[in-house]
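Incident log, support desk, overnight shift.

02:14 A customer reports that sequence design results differ from what the structure should imply. Their input is reproduced verbatim below. On-call engineer (initials T.W.) acknowledged and began investigating.
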C-alpha cells in the first residue's frame, strides 16, 4: 500500500469516527429545510404558513431559552408536523467554553426543549457552525448528533431576495441540507450580530419551495428524509 493510500484510509476512518451530518444520501427528490435561531414571532408563523401551503416540512434548530419564553410557538412547530432540534440554550459560540460546559449546556438545552415541545431532540447545530474536535465530542457525549449544512439561502446576510434564492438553488440536489433562519439572534441570546434589513421569511420560504419544485424537488425535515435515506457524514471543524 502506498503512503498516499494509507493516509487516505486514515482520513476516511477519521471522518467516519468524527463526522457531523452534512447531507442525506437518498434516492428521493427531497431537500432538507432547516431554520435556526427561533422561535420568533411573527417570522416563525410566516414560515410555518408557507410550508403548510405547499405541504413541505422542515427541521427547526431552536434556542431553548427562546422556546421557554414562547412555548406556544415551539409547540405549533411540532403540531404542524415539523421537527424540533437544538441550536443551544442561547447563541453564544462554543469556542469560549470548556468541553464540560458544552456537554452540560447541551444536556440542559436538550431537556428544556424536549420539555417545552413535548418531542424528542436528536440533533444539534453549533451556533455559527463553529465546532472544534473537542466540542464535537462534548456534543456527542450529550446524546445528540451535530448537523451542519451543504447550502444556504444567505438569509442572515444583507443581500437581495433574488440573491438569496440564487444561493439556495446553486446546490439544489437530492439530500441537500439547506441553512435558513426563522429568527435573528441578538443581545437576549448572548450575542450582538448586528442588524440586517427586515424581510418576510415566509415569502422567502415560498420562493425557495417554488424554485426547488421547478427542479423536481420538495422540502422535508431531516427526520423524514432519513426514513428513506442515510446520513452523509463529514468532518466539519472551524
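02:41 Re-run completed on a clean worker. Output:
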Amino acid at each position: 500500500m502506498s503512503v498516499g493510500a494509507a493516509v487516505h484510509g486514515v482520513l476516511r476512518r477519521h471522518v467516519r469516527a468524527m463526522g457531523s451530518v452534512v447531507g442525506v444520501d437518498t434516492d428521493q427528490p427531497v431537500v432538507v429545510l432547516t431554520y435556526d435561531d427561533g422561535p420568533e414571532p411573527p417570522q416563525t408563523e410566516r414560515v410555518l404558513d408557507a410550508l403548510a401551503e405547499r405541504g413541505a416540512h422542515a427541521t427547526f434548530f431552536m434556542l431553548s431559552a427562546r422556546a421557554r419564553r414562547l412555548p406556544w410557538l415551539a409547540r405549533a412547530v411540532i403540531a404542524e408536523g415539523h421537527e424540533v432540534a437544538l441550536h443551544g440554550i442561547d447563541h453564544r459560540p462554543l469556542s469560549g467554553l470548556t468541553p464540560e460546559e458544552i456537554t452540560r449546556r447541551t444536556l440542559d438545552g436538550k431537556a428544556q426543549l424536549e420539555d417545552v415541545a413535548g418531542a424528542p431532540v436528536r440533533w444539534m447545530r453549533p451556533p455559527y457552525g463553529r465546532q472544534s474536535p473537542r466540542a464535537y465530542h462534548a456534543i456527542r457525549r450529550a446524546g445528540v448528533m451535530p448537523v451542519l449544512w451543504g447550502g444556504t439561502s444567505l438569509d442572515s446576510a444583507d443581500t437581495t431576495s433574488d440573491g438569496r434564492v440564487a444561493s439556495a438553488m446553486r446546490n439544489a440536489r437530492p439530500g441537500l441540507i439547506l441553512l435558513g433562519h426563522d429568527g435573528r439572534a441578538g443581545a437576549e441570546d448572548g450575542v450582538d450580530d448586528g442588524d440586517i434589513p427586515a424581510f418576510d421569511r415566509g415569502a422567502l420560504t415560498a420562493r425557495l419551495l417554488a424554485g426547488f419544485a421547478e427542479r423536481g424537488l420538495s422540502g422535508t425535515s431531516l427526520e423524514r428524509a432519513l426514513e428513506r435515506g442515510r446520513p452523509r457524514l463529514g468532518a466539519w471543524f472551524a
